[in-house]
């Protein structure tokens, strides 16, 4: 049997034929346009070919420098560094400090700090730019010790003083590495050098203190600034949001507008992040309006952040509208919309979107498939999920990662295929993570598989003994099976190891404020009205045939006490409060920090029918949309 083998030429790339064109009359090119040919080879990553040419006068020195700078900037592999370094020595030596500075930066960028340091020490003429090249290079690589050492050497060995570039680099390195004491030292240097009035330097210090959680110091610097730039305002919004004080960040934005400072893209992205942290829908609408007024509605980064915000706030339709209005969509925008469908359990819509991505030629990646498989998992699309998991590697050449296996285990576990999920874990080419075992343990809890649950829990406790959720889930499995002694032993072990379970609580927005409820909560000023409303509501719910599911009260107590406890879960109190303070027809959006229990899930379905309200509850896993007596999860959760 004769097998046809393609000729070698069929494998040659286009760049080979371009090289052939140049080689055809190489002699003429070498004599007439050597610098052009040198730059060509550098641009094609043909460093060895480029170094055949002697870039020496009579060529203008400026042209030689330009070609070498281009070579250094284009270098992406340390393999080529010695060749370029040798060419610099042959052509210019280091009397041209600019080239030496670039070589130092190149070595640091490619991870060869020792070579960079040795080269720097050999440079005969080191000016402020040289020192800044070394310091900023170490700063960008996160090498705090090397950065600070270079800074100290500069102050000891150089006649010049640090400038803004120097201080910005060192402050940035301190902020990134969480070095507070070193940051305070730099702050002292700034004061000593009389640079406290330099806006860029002060902004870097504000960012430094903000990242490390010292808001008072950051605020003091901000207040003392004679002139506050847009970057100053943006930094204050960002650091307050990152430190859990998003409301203060929103207030600062309003002050900025009143001061006549116009926002930019960074401002809007910071505001949208702050709004995500506060969870207040009206603020999102206000920012959306501001985006239109400032003419940022065509900005892809801002639009994607807005889309993501609406999805997290439970307003999926608003996310769709933002996505549809985008003139241009990059992979991040497509993925954000896919993630929105996933968390809202819109599996069919996620599949349609993925098919549209493929049709329009969008390059999908591992993140795309993570959200697609997650959407299938939350929607009960078992066969579809298995199909996409298969074609992910076979068609799209995306190798499965831990996140993908976790989604598949979750998908199979939710559908009751526990053994199949277990076999998938055992067939994995890599060691399963705690997230993967956790997905299987959650399925064991739902389907009451005590034996498998115990085995999985033992693996989890070995992998991550400090995660309280694993103990709680195993305890719940024992409790649901009536194994109270085993459940008590697990809780005792949890207490012995100093671990505490997070108490369940629910949040609901009203009047630009977020209200928090816990089980049996009596702390609200209108607590009596809320409980009266809840009692009335539960009578109607039970009268409609929805009986209390006391099996979700995992305590060895009397049945009457179980009924009383389950009737006062935080989700139910939040629903009662929402019905009390909002007008008829207004959707209720509630956030729960833990997974919603089965009784509250059934109650929300009935309430949506009786009150003719849409109720949206986001738990720790996903969104549930209740309307007309049904849930979007189709009871697959």
Protein architecture, described:
Helix 15 (230-242) packs antiparallel against helix 16. It is built from 34 helices and 6 strands. The chain is globular and about 90 Å long. It is 65% helix and 4% strand. Strand 1 (505-509) and strand 2 (514-518) form a beta hairpin.
Layout: helices, strands, pairs:
Layout: H1 14-24, H2 26-32, H3 34-43, H4 47-50, H5 61-74, H6 81-91, H7 97-109, H8 113-122, H9 128-140, H10 144-157, H11 164-177, H12 180-192, H13 199-211, H14 215-224, H15 230-242, H16 246-258, H17 265-278, H18 281-293, H19 300-312, H20 316-325, H21 331-343, H22 347-359, H23 366-379, H24 382-394, H25 402-414, H26 418-426, H27 434-447, H28 450-463, H29 468-480, H30 484-496, E1 505-509, E2 514-518, H31 527-543, H32 559-567, H33 570-581, E3 588-592, H34 598-610, E4 615-618, E5 623-627, E6 630-631
Beta percentage is under 5%
Mean pLDDT: 82
Major sheet characteristics: 6 strands, mixed
Class based on secondary structure composition and strand pairing: mainly alpha
The geometry reads as globular
Strand order of the largest sheet: 2-1-3-4-5-6
Range of helix content: 55-70%
Tell me the number of strands.
6
From the alpha-carbon coordinates, what is the Rg to the nearest angstrom? 31 Å
Unreliable spans: 1-63
Count of alpha and pi helical runs? 34
């Amino acid at each position: 049997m004769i097998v046809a083998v393609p000729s070698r030429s069929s494998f040659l790339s286009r760049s080979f034929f371009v090289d052939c064109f140049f080689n055809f009359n190489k002699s003429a090119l070498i004599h007439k346009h050597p610098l052009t040919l040198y730059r060509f080879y550098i641009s094609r990553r043909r460093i060895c070919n480029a170094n055949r040419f002697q870039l020496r006068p009579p060529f203008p020195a400026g042209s030689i420098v330009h070609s070498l700078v281009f070579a250094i900037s284009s270098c992406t592999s340390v393999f080529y560094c010695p060749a370029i370094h040798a060419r610099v020595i042959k052509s210019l030596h280091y009397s041209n400090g600019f080239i030496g500075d670039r070589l130092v930066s190149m070595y640091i960028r490619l991870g060869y700090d020792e070579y960079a340091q040795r080269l720097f020490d050999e440079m005969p003429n080191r000016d402020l730019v040289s020192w800044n090249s070394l310091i900023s290079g170490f700063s960008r690589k996160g090498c705090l010790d090397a950065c600070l050492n270079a800074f100290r050497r500069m102050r000891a060995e150089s006649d010049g003083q640090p400038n803004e570039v120097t201080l910005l680099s060192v402050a940035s390195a301190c902020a990134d590495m969480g070095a507070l004491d070193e940051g305070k030292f730099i702050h002292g240097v700034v004061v000593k050098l009389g640079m406290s009035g330099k806006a860029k330097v002060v902004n870097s210090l504000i960012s430094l203190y903000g990242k490390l959680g010292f808001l008072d110091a950051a605020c003091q610097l901000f207040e003392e600034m004679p002139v506050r730039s847009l970057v100053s305002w943006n930094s204050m919004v960002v650091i307050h949001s990152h430190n859990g004080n998003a409301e203060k960040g929103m207030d600062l934005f309003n002050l900025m507008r009143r001061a006549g400072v116009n926002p930019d893209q960074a401002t809007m992205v910071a505001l949208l992040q702050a709004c995500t942290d506060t969870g207040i829908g009206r603020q999102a609408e206000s920012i959306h309006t501001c985006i239109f007024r400032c003419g940022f509605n065509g900005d892809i980064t801002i639009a994607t952040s807005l889309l993501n915000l609406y999805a997290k706030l439970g307003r999926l339709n608003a996310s769709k509208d933002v996505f549809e209005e985008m003139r241009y969509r990059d992979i991040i925008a497509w993925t954000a919309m896919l993630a929105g469908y996933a968390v809202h359990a819109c599996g069919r819509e996620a599949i349609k979107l993925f098919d549209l991505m493929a049709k329009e030629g969008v390059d999908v990646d591992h993140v795309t498939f993570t959200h697609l498989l997650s959407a299938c998992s939350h929607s009960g699309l078992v066969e579809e999920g298995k199909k996409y998991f298969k074609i992910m590697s076979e068609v799209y050449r995306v190798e499965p990662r831990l996140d993908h296996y976790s989604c598949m285990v979750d998908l199979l576990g939710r559908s009751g295929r526990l053994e199949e999920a277990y076999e998938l874990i055992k067939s994995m080419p890599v060691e399963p993570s705690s997230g993967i075992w956790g997905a299987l343990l959650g399925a064991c809890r739902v389907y009451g598989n005590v034996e498998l649950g115990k085995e999985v829990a033992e693996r989890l406790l070995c992998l991550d003994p400090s995660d309280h959720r694993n103990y709680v889930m195993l305890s719940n499995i024992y409790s649901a099976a009536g194994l109270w002694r085993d459940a008590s032993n697990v809780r005792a072990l949890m207490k012995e190891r100093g671990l505490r379970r997070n108490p369940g609580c629910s949040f609901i927005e009203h009047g630009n404020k977020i209200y928090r409820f816990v089980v049996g909560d009596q702390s609200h000023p209108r607590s009596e009205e809320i409980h009266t409303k809840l009692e009335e509501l539960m009578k109607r719910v039970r009268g409609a045939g929805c009986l209390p599911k006391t099996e979700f009260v995992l305590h060895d107590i009397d049945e009457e006490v179980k009924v009383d406890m389950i009737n006062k879960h935080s989700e139910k109190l939040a629903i009662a409060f929402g019905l009390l303070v909002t007008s008829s027809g207004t959707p209720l959006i509630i956030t729960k920090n833990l997974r919603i229990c089965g009784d509250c899930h059934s109650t929300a379905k009935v309430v949506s029918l009786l009150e003719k309200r849409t109720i949206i509850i986001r738990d720790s896993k996903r969104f549930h949309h209740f309307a007309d007596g049904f849930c979007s999860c189709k009871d697959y959760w």
